[in-house]
């Protein structure tokens, strides 16, 4: 085959391979894959030391957070802000702000609750609110306040709007989520929760893996090792 044809084919294969590898190993893909493959247990059947996935509904265990872009009450939020940056004839999206804040909450499964130890957690929250500001489309006051609080602004030189996109994901009360890690039964005092919770299952990282957590609908489907439902 003509070398002049082989070279662009080879370059194309390399580019496709790089894209596929980056998609497979990006943070969100890894978290979803870990949770989808994990075998679940009902919280009530955990024995301290068990490693498995729990699925349940978010319940506030303290004052809820207020998501900065949408104003929603939530237990956790993640915000990603990216600016389109030009470089020669091409452009790319550059992360200018990434913020994740976790409040106090439990995962309820019937009468039993699990609490996440936040020392080592990898979470993926579905980005269900998206906004933008660009030429001819000003940032809302909420977006501008968030930018300003992080030392950024929506306008560039001569007062022209930058091309910015904003993404927000939250854990709302009553939302179904999944988490996988090592379970350990503790008192509410040990877990630093209100004493109304009495006894809770704390989900912590193992020596090899962090706690994985997500509200993606694909991750809350589970196969149970202790029962069939």
Write up what this structure looks like.
- The chain is of the alpha+beta class.
- It has one domain (3-224).
- Helix content is 19%, strand content 40%.
- The chain has 3 helices and 15 strands.
- It has helices spanning 3-25, 27-37, 141-149; strands at residues 39-40, 51-60, 65-66, 73-74, 76-87, 90-102, 105-109, 112-116, 121-124, 129-133, 164-171, 176-187, 199-204, 211-214, 223-224.
- A 5-stranded mixed β-barrel has the order 2-7-8-13-12. A 4-stranded antiparallel β-sheet has the order 6-5-11-10, with no helix packed on it.
- The chain is elongated, with a radius of gyration of 22 Å.
- It starts with a helix and ends in a 5-residue tail after the last strand.
- Mean pLDDT is 88; it is low at 9-25.
Q: Considering DSSP H and I runs of 4 or more, what fraction of the residues is helical?
A: 10-25%
> How would a textbook summarize the main sheet?
5 strands, mixed, barrel
End-to-end separation in angstroms reads 58 Å
Unreliable spans: 9-25
Average pLDDT: 88
Relative strand content: 35-45%
Task: Sum up the overall morphology in one term.
Answer: elongated
Oligomer status: single chain
How many distinct helices?
Answer: 3
Number of domains: 1
SS class: alpha+beta
Sketch the topology as an H/E string, one letter per element: HHEEEEEEEEEEHEEEEE
**Which sequence of strands runs across the widest sheet?**
2-7-8-13-12
